[in-house]
């Protein structure tokens, strides 16, 4: 009942945000719109900052406890291997789907070159160095556990937590007091999630009102075909993911979707997968996934399993090439796909990371990086779709691995 109430509140907040944002866009002058958007956006900022404040301790405690509860290191390797098999298979399918759609539909040929957002491009240009190969390796290995937690570097936290958990598991009874304390700490953090989720409708309202006030719904006039083709890709990806999920989970799949409806809505409306990590953890456990599997697989998924973002990166990169009339043969496109597969890991906590990677990839393959400015005006709406898809993919991955491990208990309705 409480979950349904939150869902209704979020849907109402979405509608109000769009209506009020549109009213401001149509009636106010430019300075008023800018001021309104800046101030109302604070509602979303407050919510996301509250959630981010608990992500690092939650990932660390739940992942360490999850590994310790898997009992032996062979189990850790087996579960991790199954998870990575799903992650890389789903990533490859997502990238190939984006590549296939662009080659069939040619969305780049419909992009209006006059609508480029060059001002927004400047904010991204300085960040591309973060995704060089050297930076990629440095991004994986933490130099300081506390620094990684302070910066919410999820992939680094995962690496440190796995090492800590494996070491604790190998020590047997000697480490049990530490594991018990961390388990209690994790439950306290999960309790905090319930309090923070009460702010979610206000965050949804503020985020959508700000975007619609600044851009208006007229933005779709310029990018209707591009956005429609991307939506088609998202629908195809959802069908593929849900079909595979149904083959493995069977009749439990609708119940899983019911449990993750709130996280999907929040991710969709705030464009932040981080914002739903704690809530998604709790809902997957309510669905019937054992806590040790959830706490092990879900953080890994946030680093390695971003299906919506993966599809968009090939879709956007190739669409920009088409907009400039640049032909890329299939071999070059497959090489680009492999580059994106590697450079996209661990980007969940980086704002607009998909665009940053697209920008870096375009430079690497001699596509004008300024082309990213062509897709910036519509990116927020694309981000809503790909973020929700990322959440769906990680929920399915966790549930599927739980089923494979025989760790999917009787679900709670």
What does this structure look like?
This protein is an all-alpha fold and 413 residues long. The protein is built from 18 helices and no strands. The protein has a domain of 288 residues: Orthogonal Bundle (Proton glutamate symport protein), CATH 1.10.3860. Helix 10 runs antiparallel to helix 15. It starts with a helix and ends in a 9-residue tail after the last helix.
Order of helices and strands: HHHHHHHHHHHHHHHHHH
Round the Cα radius of gyration to an integer and report it: 21 Å
Summed up, the helix count is: 18
Helix percentage = over 70%
Strand content: under 5%
Structural class estimated from helices and strands? mainly alpha
Global morphology: globular
Total beta strand runs: 0
Question: Which architecture name of the domain at 71-172 and 219-404 does CATH use?
Answer: Orthogonal Bundle
Which CATH class of the domain at 71-172 and 219-404 is shown? Answer: Mainly Alpha
Enter the CATH topology name of the domain at 71-172 and 219-404: Proton glutamate symport protein
Largest sheet, strands/sense/barrel: none
């Amino acid at each position: 009942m409480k979950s349904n109430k939150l869902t209704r509140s979020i849907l109402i907040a979405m509608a109000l945000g769009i209506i009020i944002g549109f009213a401001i866009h149509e009636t106010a002058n430019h300075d008023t719109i800018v001021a309104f958007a800046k101030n109302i956006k604070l509602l979303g900022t407050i919510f996301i900052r509250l959630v981010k404040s608990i992500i690092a301790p939650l990932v660390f405690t739940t992942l360490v406890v999850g590994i310790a509860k898997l009992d032996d290191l062979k189990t850790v390797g087996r579960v991790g291997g199954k998870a990575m098999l799903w992650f890389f298979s789903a990533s490859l399918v997502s990238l190939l789907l984006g590549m296939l759609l662009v080659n069939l539909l040619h969305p780049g040929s419909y992009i209006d070159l006059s609508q480029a957002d060059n001002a927004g491009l400047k904010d991204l240009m300085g960040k591309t160095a973060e995704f060089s190969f050297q930076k990629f390796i440095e991004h994986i290995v933490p130099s300081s556990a506390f620094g990684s937690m302070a910066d919410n570097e999820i992939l680094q936290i995962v690496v440190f937590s796995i090492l800590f958990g494996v070491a604790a598991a190998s020590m047997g009874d000697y480490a049990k007091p530490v594991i018990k304390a961390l388990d209690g700490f994790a439950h306290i953090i999960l309790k905090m999630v319930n309090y923070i989720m009460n702010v979610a409708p206000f965050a949804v309202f503020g985020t959508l009102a700000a975007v619609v006030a600044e851009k208006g719904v007229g933005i779709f006039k310029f990018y209707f075909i591009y956005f429609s083709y991307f939506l088609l890709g998202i629908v195809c990806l959802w069908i593929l993911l849900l079909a595979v999920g149904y083959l493995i989970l069977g009749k439990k799949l609708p119940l899983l979707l019911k449990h993750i409806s709130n996280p999907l809505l929040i991710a969709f409306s705030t464009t932040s997968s981080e914002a739903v990590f704690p809530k998604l953890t709790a809902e997957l456990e309510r669905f019937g996934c054992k806590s040790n599997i959830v706490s092990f697989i879900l953080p890994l998924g946030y680093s390695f399993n971003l299906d919506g973002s993966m599809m968009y990166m090939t879709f956007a990169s190739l669409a920009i090439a088409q907009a400039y009339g640049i032909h890329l043969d299939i071999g070059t496109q497959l090489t680009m796909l492999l580059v994106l597969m590697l450079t996209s890991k661990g980007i969940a906590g980086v704002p607009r990371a998909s665009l940053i990677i697209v920008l870096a990839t375009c430079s690497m393959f001699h596509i004008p990086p300024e082309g990213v400015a062509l897709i910036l005006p519509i990116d927020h709406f694309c981000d809503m779709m790909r973020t929700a898809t990322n959440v769906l993919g990680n929920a399915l991955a966790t549930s599927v691995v739980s089923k494979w491990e025989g760790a999917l208990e009787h679900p709670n309705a």
